[in-house]
User: What shape does this take?
Amino acid sequence: MARVVVMGGGVSGHTAATFMKKWLGKEHDVVVVTPNSQWNWIPSNIWVGVGQMQKKDVVFPLAPIYKKAGIDYRQAKAVSIHPEGKETDPTPYITIEYTSEDKKGQTEEISYDYLVNATGPKLNFDATPGLGDGNGQIGNHTVSVCTADHAVHANLELKKIFEKAKKGERQKILVGTGHGMCTCQGAAFEYIFNIEHEANKAGVRDMLDIKWISNESFLGDFGMGGMHMKVGGYVVSSKLFAESLHAERNVPWIIGAHVNKVEEGKVHYELLDGTTGTEEFDFAMLIPPFGGVGLKAYDKNGEDITEKIFAPNGFMKVDADYTAKPYEEWKASDWPRTYQNPDYKNMFAAGIAFAPPHLISKPATSPNGTPINPTPPRTGMPAGIIGKAVAHSICSMIKDGENAHIHEASMAEMGAACVASAGKGLFDGQAAAMTVYPVVPDYDKYPATGRDPEYTYGEIGLAGHWIKHILHHMFIYKAKLKPGWTLIPE
Amino acid sequence: MNDPLLNFRKNPQFTNTMIPDRFVRFMRKCVIWQFIRFTVINIKMLIVVSKSH
Assistant: This one.
């Protein structure tokens, strides 16, 4: 009997754990270690943040789902990895610290035969003074939609802004990224246009000044270096479409911005040209930068091998080419294919937890030496596909041993479908429905734009909203392991 | 109703981009047309999904 331990129960970890349990059956153990008691469909948090959904619509308890599936669920956070075991016992193990009410603070060692690191990101609010509270949590000056609870709070604060606007007080809203190295611009993009949509419905749009601030060097970069789409007989940049949406909705922008300090009602920022500025706000939603969750690693002698296992940003090293090289020499082949750790072959990293070899967007630095560029997105569809590929590989290793086929899912060979909401409503909602293929541009294969123009596509409309709403229900249905869940693609 | 075309004048950032006219905005919300687009987008997405697995 083999034991597979999955650290993290988000999109990637949940996908990996549930498929492995289905394929391995009762003969082998699958353990999920996650500090959360609930699963969250994060893409719908933006709708909680504008009051169009409630928290209960985007979360569900994990315990009954894992009980039904036969998965050993530990509500705990992983603390350290010991891939060589101990001097006296070579069985690898991890240490965990329980977060559940009944066992809070208790620690335990869990041995494993195979380990999946799908811990996702640490929301690094404290990277920007004033954005965090100094203890790793969000501060008092801004709101966030990164978690369901954050989104509930964001909606309460937004409602206060709308009330003031209704009373005739002009209000300033600022939405975007809270640091020069943020990713996940898409969530902020969705949130700002949902606020704009709700403000129109509430009749207060004329009393709101809504502004975008982000670390992208151009609107529509989204951490992927933007994309080129075939529209109306032309191949055009996503920059045009993003700017168009901002102009149509009267949402001006500050781009190439590294927010370096947040105060009550004010952000300070540095731009790519080295100049600095401040922007005042009555309400701000700023996405924090992501980092690894801070796992430590030790060898059998207890020596710290964290730097061997993890990149400096805290994400786990896998089979990528991490050789430092200039942007002009970046290749699609730099990106990992199997997500297997090069030193410990029974260890994988999936979803946001793996260390990307470099950015996707062109790197940029201000004359003052401040890096200001989006980091690569690894969420949603790619995270699910990677989780499933890792599950396949581990099942093959358990069943076929040395001759196992290690499955591949390079982000430079997979596409992604993405739907970015611009307002919720059955007949007045809108969303930008996009596909990119591949996620990481391959300029050897597609010399012009790095991506296949036949499969890289986008359009805005009500249909996109319908799709986003259907995906919300479909993926929660799948995550709950309801009948036919395996038929729903990642 | 606000006409987004007037936004060209509101901010210099908006003058160099494209803003949809009334017909495009109508079609974005036209249920019959959007049902057709719904079908087309789903097919496109399914192709990308199938190429990615």
Observations:
- The first strand of chain A starts at residue 3 and ends at 7.
- Chain A has a mean pLDDT of 96.
- Chain A has ten helices and 24 strands.
